[in-house]
Task: inverse folding
């Protein structure tokens, strides 16, 4: 069960990525920051992550998973320490968030591919499901814990990050015994099996552009909107930091719980994810209009589940399309497209300033519905 060690390392790094999410309300109160600036801070993570994805995956295809993954995992702990030291400096907060994105980009692309290679004997889709569960579980537990600590514990902008640092150290210790899965040979390798093989196979370009890429964007556009934008735009009842942490935990926890449904849904996994996204955005718009908490709960669960299904479907399709020697690189491309979705909260916040929170959420529901229409014929052919 060596794959479990890789899964835990992936989980540990993922747990840190949303630790700042419920703490945005703390920063908002302390530093008097606008919703637009806070959603920009949240999304600045992607500015570091996307280029790191393009470097990490291909580099691990050449140098091996271990030599690239281990420094990335270690730097995840450093990113949390940077957050803990940021204090009331907006500049340092942006720097820490950028560093968090860089190390996450390296770890997610490399270790997701690593989990897939360690899971080959478990059948098609097993690696994608395991990686998806690891990441979504981390995304869920991290903000839930930081929400509780941020609301009730002393040093709310320090303690959650130090706790995550300890978790990463444990993950790094467990990962040290993982076997290398990439055969590293000196000199150039032939196109049939080495890095010179095409990243996207002949005839797959349209599928990547119109199916894989938009499904990837949904992975994070769905949950981050309700986790980041909605709590900043609509007044929350009671203890706002705690409610935000619970909402984030429920949203991303729903993505963890549904990942296993991919085995039953098969080629319809992505379709199910986007349908849940349509319903989730509609529920979020209803919450923006009514401020009734049940609508927020429904939006959290629906958008979280939708993002989780899109992640599982996308990782499986990525593994199916990739040449063996380019799995890390194509995984990087998929995750880079996924993290474009981190721009969604900022776009919603900007549009809400000119209109109302309900308007961009309704538009998001419409766009997700259009994607569902595109996916239907592909699913019927069993190509998802």
Result:
């Amino acid at each position: 069960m060596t794959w479990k060690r890789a899964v835990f390392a992936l989980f540990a790094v993922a747990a840190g990525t949303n630790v700042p999410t419920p703490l945005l309300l703390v920063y908002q109160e302390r530093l008097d920051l606008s919703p637009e600036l806070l959603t920009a801070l949240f999304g600045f993570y992607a500015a570091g992550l996307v280029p790191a994805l393009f470097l990490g995956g291909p580099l691990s295809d050449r140098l091996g998973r271990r030599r690239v993954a281990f420094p990335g995992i270690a730097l995840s702990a450093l990113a949390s320490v940077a957050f803990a030291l940021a204090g009331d400096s907006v500049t340092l907060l942006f720097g820490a968030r950028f560093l968090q994105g860089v190390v996450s980009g390296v770890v997610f692309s490399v270790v997701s591919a690593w989990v897939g290679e360690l899971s080959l004997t478990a059948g098609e889709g097993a690696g994608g499901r395991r990686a998806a569960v690891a990441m979504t579980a981390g995304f869920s537990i991290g903000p839930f814990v930081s929400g509780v600590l941020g609301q009730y514990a002393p040093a709310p902008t320090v303690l959650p990050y130090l706790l995550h640092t300890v978790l990463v150290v444990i993950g790094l210790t467990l990962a040290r015994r993982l076997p290398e899965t990439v055969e590293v040979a000196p000199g150039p390798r032939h196109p049939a099996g080495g890095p010179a093989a095409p990243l996207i196979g002949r005839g797959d370009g349209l599928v990547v552009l119109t199916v894989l890429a938009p499904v990837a964007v949904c992975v994070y556009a769905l949950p981050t909107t309700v986790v980041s934008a909605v709590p900043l735009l609509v007044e929350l009842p009671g203890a706002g930091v705690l409610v935000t942490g619970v909402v984030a935990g429920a949203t991303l926890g729903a993505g963890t719980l549904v990942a296993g449904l991919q085995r039953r849904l098969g080629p319809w996994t992505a379709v199910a994810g986007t349908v849940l996204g349509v319903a989730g955005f509609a529920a979020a718009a209803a919450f923006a209009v009514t401020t009734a908490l049940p609508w927020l709960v429904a939006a959290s669960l629906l958008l979280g589940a939708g993002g989780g299904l899109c992640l599982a479907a996308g990782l499986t399709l990525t593994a199916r399309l990739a040449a063996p020697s380019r799995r890390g690189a194509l995984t990087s491309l998929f995750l880079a497209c996924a993290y474009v979705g981190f721009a969604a909260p900022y776009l919603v916040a900007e549009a809400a300033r000119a209109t109302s929170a309900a308007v961009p959420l309704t538009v998001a529901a419409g766009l997700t519905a259009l994607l569902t229409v595109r996916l239907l014929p592909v699913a019927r052919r069993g190509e998802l």
Observations:
- Residues 35-63 form the longest helix (29 residues).
- The chain has one domain: 3-177+200-380.
- Residues 3-177+200-380 form a domain with the Growth Hormone; Chain: A; fold (CATH 1.20.1250.20).
- DSSP finds 15 helices and no strands in the chain.
